[in-house]
Amino acid sequence: MSTAAGEMTHHDHHHHAPSGLTRWFFTTNHKEIGSLYLWFSFIMFLVGGSMAMVIRAELFQPGLQLVEPHFFNQMTTVHGLVMVFGAVMPAFVGLANWMIPLMIGAPDMALPRMNNWSFWILPFAFMILLGSLFMEGGGPAFGWTFYAPLSTSYSPDSTALFVFSIHIMGISSIMGAINVIVTVMNMRAPGMTYMKMPMFVWTWLITAFLLIAVMPVLACAATMVLTDKYFGTSFFDAAGGGDPVLFQHIFWFFGHPEVYIMILPSFGIVSAIIPAFSRKKLFGYSSMVYATGAIAGLSFLVWAHHMFTTGMPVGAEIFFMYATMLISIPTGVKVFNWVATMWRGAISFETPMLFAIAFVVLFTIGGFSGLMLAMTPADFQYHDSYFVVAHFHYVLVSGAVFSIMAAAYYWLPKWTGHMYDETLGRWHFWCSLISVNVLFFPMHFVGLAGMPRRIPDYALQFADINKIVSYGAFAFGLSQLIFLWVVIKCARGGERAPMKPWEGAEGLEWTIPSPAPLHTFETPPEVK
Amino acid sequence: MAQQHEKYYVPAYSPWPIMGAIGLFLIAFGAAHTVIDMSKEIDGWGSNVLWTGIAVIILMLFGWFRDQINESLAGMHSKQLGNSYRQGMTWFIFSEVMFFSAFFGALFYARFISVEWLGGASNNAMTNEVLWPAFEAHWPLTLTPGGIESGSMGWMGLPLYNTIILIVSSVTCHLAHVNLEKNNRKMLTTWLGITVLLGCTFLYFQVAEYIHAYQDLGLRLDSGVYGNTFFMLTGFHGVHVTLGTIMLLVMFLRVLKGHFTPDNHFAFQATSWYWHFVDVVWVCLFIFVYVM
């Protein structure tokens, strides 16, 4: 992902470019900031992944083996936070930074200095969050959803650090989203009309809107937790007239659109890769755009499906059940379009395509288990079980993370100027594919059999399956080191990549040299 | 899209954002430790870090805006860049709208759902009977289920004056903008100056109202969900008015220095938008927090 080698030759004649580390601290360039985001996200992926390894090691056998329950809770909490706010979201912002200006023919992001700011506050936010793990009493241990009163009456002293780190992550996301939305609306090359934009740009435009709409709501929830815990307010305390359920409403009003924030850009990536390797145009482009919009619109009306068992009037349960099921229609349109794009295409199976196809299949499995969870009466059985864990890891790991891998392989030649090692890439793919299913598929079974999530111990009858799951987890974790190896190898050298390494690829990003020079499209291209 | 292309200005490497990142880090880290120390009633170093962070951010703002203003005065900003700024500000205000919406949502939830239900409404007769049999739902919640008593804030007097002040200030701010566009500098200065003064007056009255609430009414941040929503909503609004007043003051000083032209005054426009937004929030506050 680093283009350091390729760029050295260019920034010589770029006036007063600082050298060494200062260059990365002071940069306003969308490609450099994109690389920073992507590297940061990968580091966080490894950090959050290590925590998952701790969780799976503890769950390898029934009984308490390795860690204290309180530490286990911190691991599940911080694993979730790191993966959501540190790995998946920054990876998408990094891809947006790198690719959106190239795809729409813009010279850079619209607000380059703010772009730098929105990146550099992120590492600090995670320093605060991860640092709180080492405080007396430990770090956040109430789940990434920080439900009150776990996060208020029963939370560790360090909760204020958690709250303020969430605030910074939110500020970063909002600034990043404003940058994306303004870039897309204001910086398109002449002739690049909205309905000519690549799907990745479309999905990110809608994602950016969702981010600006819901990150402030998360800030509100976190602020109320802070005041409830430290300033004696009782938003979430019935004795003062409040209600812990209020927390869940506010949190999930953020949380459900957040789910789509983490998957819509994936849709865009897959919609770029599948046509390229099927050597066909994307089937049903405009229906893809409308489906994305519909998913985003519906995402504001379904939040309480996370709360079926919390207690709600029956009318509300039914409304949220049907609204949730409605989402499967635009999602089905998308899956249909991807399959129809491949239909009778001249398909070749390079690593990006492998990951994209795996995405379609495995994301659909995650979608179907989501549909099961959407049914209120069934959800009373599944709620808070490992079935839920299986569901959202199918959409987030074999969904979002796989699409990010696909994107990395697809655009690495453009970023580094070298082809990645195809053999290693395929090894990475097959190891990941097999292990991710060994890891998450059996979770459906233990979940349906009644194993609760977020508990460090379990009943004996779940022992065999948990052992298999843990083996899958270790294998999946190790497989990602192959990816690290591929990226480093690709950044350092390899076969020269041509301007357009993929025969069937389309878009402006393939009309510039590989590696992409530091400054591109300073005069906008004409789009016909 | 413009037909003939003006070059879009992409700034060179800048030290300000990373300084802002460090400042924000110190603020968050310091504020968190201040809060933790307060809860343990110890005197820690948290507030020192917090104030250092605030100082760093203020320095950063001076540097960043100085660069920005110099670039603008040097004519480096194209029309397209102006559009980026305006759109960026619009989306920022939208995010602020969502922030306040969430707190208003909490207010409505507390008022129409949680307090009602604690009083036995809907199918919650047993909740009331078993947990707080003496509790009767009422709003403003001057006696919580747990037994905290407080007064409630009426809308006559200071809140009403403040409403009038802010609405008038929105008008004066608009008049300043109109005169800027007509290049009528004298009227611009006058109206803008009046707007700043009205902002300060509002803040002064707001502080007086808080003192009145704490000392005379016994209405505090921790007096149950009525006090919570009252102080959180008016408090965050007050912070925004403070920020807006500072922005207006900066605009006033820049106008005195001769900045802004009828067709290049993004900073002024953004400040004016922000001020109108803050006013709209207040009108909602006045209706939903004070009157109703």
Protein model, in words:
The complex is a heterodimer of chains A (528) and B (292). Chain A is mainly α. Chain A is 67% helix and 0% strand. Chain A has 17 helices and no strands. Chain A has helices at residues 4-11, 20-26, 30-58, 69-104, 112-131, 159-186, 199-230, 244-261, 264-278, 285-298, 314-326, 328-342, 351-374, 376-382, 386-416, 422-448, 463-492. In chain A, helix 7 (199-230) runs antiparallel to helix 8. Chain A is globular, with a radius of gyration of 23 Å. The model of chain A is unreliable at 1-14 (pLDDT under 50). Chain B has two domains: 13-76, Orthogonal Bundle (Helix Hairpins); 78-291, Cytochrome c oxidase, subunit III, four-helix bundle (Four Helix Bundle (Hemerythrin (Met), subunit A)). With 292 residues, chain B is an all-alpha fold. Chain B is globular. Chain B has helices at 16-40, 46-73, 79-118, 125-131, 158-181, 185-217, 224-256, 266-291. The interface between A and B is large, with 87 and 71 residues. Chain B: GO terms for molecular function: cytochrome-c oxidase activity. Chain B: Residues 4-292 form the Heme-copper oxidase subunit III family profile domain. Chain B: It comes from Pseudidiomarina indica. Chain B: InterPro entries: Cyt_c/ubiquinol_Oxase_su3, Cyt_c_oxase_su3_dom, Cyt_c_oxidase-like_su3, Cyt_c_oxidase_su3-like_sf, Cyt_c_oxidase_su3_a-hlx.
- Average pLDDT number of chain A: 95
Order of helices and strands of chain B: HHHHHHHH
Named at the architecture level, the CATH assignment of chain A is Up-down Bundle
Please state the oligomeric state of the protein chains shown. Answer: heterodimer
Q: Domains counted in the coordinates of chain B: how many?
A: 2
- By CATH, the topology of chain A is Cytochrome C Oxidase, Chain A
The CATH homologous superfamily of the largest domain in chain B is called Cytochrome c oxidase, subunit III, four-helix bundle
Tell me about the biggest sheet of chain B?
none
CATH topology of the largest domain in chain B: Four Helix Bundle (Hemerythrin (Met), subunit A)
Shape of chain A: globular
Strand fraction of chain B: under 5%
List how many beta strands of chain B DSSP finds.
Answer: 0
Count of alpha and pi helical runs of chain A: 17
Instruction: Provide the CATH top-level class of chain A.
Output: Mainly Alpha
Uncertain regions of chain B: pLDDT < 50 for 5+ in a row? none
Broad structural category of chain B: mainly alpha
Helix content of chain A: 55-70%
Main pleated-sheet profile of chain A: none
Order of helices and strands of chain A: HHHHHHHHHHHHHHHHH
Radius of gyration of chain B: 23 Å
